[in-house]
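User: Before I run my own analysis I want an independent prediction to cross-check against. Here's the chain; please return only the structure tokens and, at the end, one sentence I can use as a sanity check.
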Amino acid sequence: MAPRSKLETGSVPTGPSPLAAVDPQAARWWPGLLLAAVTVLVFGPMLGYPFINFDDPVYVSANPHVQQGLSPEGAHWAFTSMAANFYHPLTWLSYMLDSSLYGVTPAGYRLTNLILHLASMLLCYRALIRATGDRLAAAVAAALFALHPLHVESVVWIAERKDALSTFFWMLTLDVYLGYAAAHNAAGRLLFALEDFTAAERRFSQAMDLAPGTAAAINNLATLRLGQGRSGEALVLFRQAVERDPHDPEIRKNTGLALLRRGRLGAATEALCRATRLAPADAAIRRLLDDARRFQGHFRAAAADLRRHLPEDADVAPAPSARRRLPAGLARLERLWARYTRALAKQPGFVADELDRANLPAVHAVAGKARALLAATGPGPRPPTAGGP
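Assistant: Structure tokens:
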């Protein structure tokens, strides 16, 4: 069954709105920037150090090709020379560029090493966030990379520029690969908006294959499943997305929506409570929560009222007066369920400030008991629609 179109259900299909961003954590750079500041403080004193005699003369301070700066002749030499017993033209070109910018000042060459190291650290942090969604783990790993003593040589020693360059391009390659996976997710979102759901599903699946830890792609595929009415499959996927990125309020909200589709109001409220703590300024989410809590309270009150008219012993017939009230109580629950499902179709998603659990399974049990009594003692109201209480 394909998801219903936007024309049938409103501005968005019956899944959460909007779909998760391609990379919801990419803009949250403050831990990385804090690490960059700490790294500068740790390595800053090296800018006052002089050249050393170990390889610095070969690479920079006594190398005439480097000291003449970046030029066609220098580039030709860089691509044809085996000086220092290595073939690394990019390293030579970077030294020549430094010479053009800073002259023969050692601080300039070390500053370039530090910039490359900082860029590698930030790319490492970004790549881990995109791959796992776990900002804390990404920050810890990036801190180990930035401040580990084994990296002192690569940053402070001018002649070790080749290590700083190779690390930078390795991290850049990893980030580009994850960006390629995110591009599949972005294409899926576009296809979703164009209502080509089959192609969108294929793109989301490809993004998950390329980067299995990408929470955004998992969330979007789950959204598609929910729009197809496959709430059970969607709930499994949403929970996987939460495991990979527990800090994304959209994923928390969508998990709550899937739980609501399953009729589990209490668990849905708990998930949405977490979402509101992650996005307290989201007015739309709060408005949806208000609706959810109101329905929870109504269900609880209606079930309690119906329960009062049911005998405690299943083998004992209800009193005539109670028997007369059962159809009205059951009809009230059915009306609430109809309003509840209409509200979900209109505003599919919500959040909570505090838990307000409605034990919907118990409501179903009460309604089932009332129907059984009505069936045993005489004609009752029309059976409820599928999925009702």
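Sanity check: Residues 111 and 333 are 71 Å apart (CA to CA).
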